[in-house]
Amino acid sequence: MKSCSKQSVNPKACTSAYDEGTLQIMALSALHESYQFLISHLVNLLSVRLRIRVLCFGSATMRKKAKQKGVEPDLSFYVQTAAAIGNRTDLDFSVDPPPDIVVEIDLQHPSLSKFPIYAALGVPEIWRYDGKSLTVYYLAGESYVITPSSVALPVLTSATLTEFLARSQHEDQYETVLAFEQWLETRET
Question: Which residue has the higher pLDDT, 137 or 10?
């Protein structure tokens, strides 16, 4: 596993997870960041086109000291709880709700070890992309189960998200976002 330090060219190009004394640090690739950006762009476009309030907090650290758990998702979105967050940016996970959706992009390092941390933090939904398909998981009790579509954003299914992420492998992000916008238009009529 690569290490990330302040001497790195891009020290933010790392993500980490902390679980009861165990720290995991992962370096991020340009391909990883490209998928992360594309997913954020698709959700943002959906938010604007369908007039759904979605707040994105990127890979902001989520932690609960009392549970000795912390994690940095690749992306995090507030949808149902967006109104509770409002325009605040200084979140305290001991009192504020967790994001409704976190995204994990698993190209070099699997994120399944982070799932118990997300469950302990009460994150209702995880989108996990492995470079081939995007799977949506929903928290049922203390563990996650696979579900065919997002609970927070039901118009988005695993199949739809996978299709548009796959498009980005043979067309640029701009073309993929335009195709997604056309897809949204067909859903609106």
Answer: 137
